[in-house]
Design goal:
Layout (H helix, E strand, L loop, with lengths): L2 E5 L2 H9 L2 E8 L2 E8 L2 E7 L4 H15 L3 E10 L9 E9 L22 E2 L2 H14 L4 E8 L7 H11 L3 E3 L2 H11 L3 E9 L5 H27 L3
Parallel strand pairs: 1-4, 1-5, 5-10, 6-8, 8-9
Antiparallel strand pairs: 2-3, 3-4, 5-9, 6-7, 6-10
Helix pairs in contact: 1-6, 2-5, 3-6
């Protein structure tokens, strides 16, 4: 097993990079791929940059150039669910594009032509391991559900309510579904792990800067715990 770990921003991957052993850094497509061992598991940690195009490109490089066999997307998200508070954790059951809209041609929101699914399903074993790791870090504060992604920072109640109605997602962010789609296309097992940084509503502009680092650090702790558990499989 070789694990690819993707975060959009430096704050989401910095701790993981610091904790890697025997690491080398390679630049591809303008991204720095930090390859080594995390908790004894062969791994590549990379900051892909914000947005779905960056995220999908990153997965393809990980598969083609680094031979990763499994992918984890770590980072922060806005809550779309009343049960999810700031610093709580989400493990993806599946992931959907909330801004991919071909309803004009009779397709549901999020359905990409050429795929047999509308929401891309995460790997069951990786879901199980991610949930166990999240509970080990912050017991009682993890929810498994749908991740909704789009190239927008969600910061109004109107946006939030539309995404909930269209997708039934429990959190909103900007990369996860692109990573899911690319991994699904390549037949690579994946899971998305997100810590809640804001409520994805009119309070987001205040909450996000305050809680971004706290949420990202919590996610990094969970990913490191996951790496330890995956290394024992």
């Amino acid at each position: 097993m070789k694990l690819g770990i993707i975060g959009a921003m430096q704050v989401e991957v910095a701790t993981l990079k610091e904790n890697m052993k025997n690491k080398t850094v390679t630049t591809r497509a303008g991204m720095e791929f930090c390859e080594g061992e995390l908790e004894g598991l062969p791994a590549v940690v990379v900051q892909c940059g914000i947005g779905k195009v960056n995220a999908a490109l990153c997965v393809q490089v990980l598969v083609d150039c680094f031979g990763v066999t499994h992918v984890v997307n770590t980072g922060i998200a806005g809550s779309l669910c009343n049960e999810l508070d700031i610093a709580d954790l989400v493990v993806s059951r599946d992931a959907i594009h909330h801004d991919f809209d071909l309803r004009f041609w009779g397709r549901p929101i999020g359905q990409v032509p050429g795929f047999d699914v509308t929401a891309f399903p995460a790997d069951e074993k990786m879901i199980e391991i991610a949930f166990a790791a999240a509970e080990a870090v912050n017991a009682g504060h993890t929810k498994i559900g749908r991740v909704a992604s789009g190239d927008q920072f969600i910061c109004s109640r109107e946006q939030k309510e539309r995404i909930i109605a269209d997708t039934q997602g429990i959190c909103a962010e900007m990369e996860g579904t692109a990573i899911a789609q690319a991994a699904y296309r390549n037949g690579v097992p994946f899971v998305i792990l997100r810590a809640i940084s804001d409520k994805a509503d009119d309070s987001a502009e205040m909450d996000y800067p305050t809680f971004e680092a706290i949420a990202a650090k919590r996610c990094a702790e969970v990913v490191q715990t996951m790496a330890k558990q995956l290394g024992q499989i």
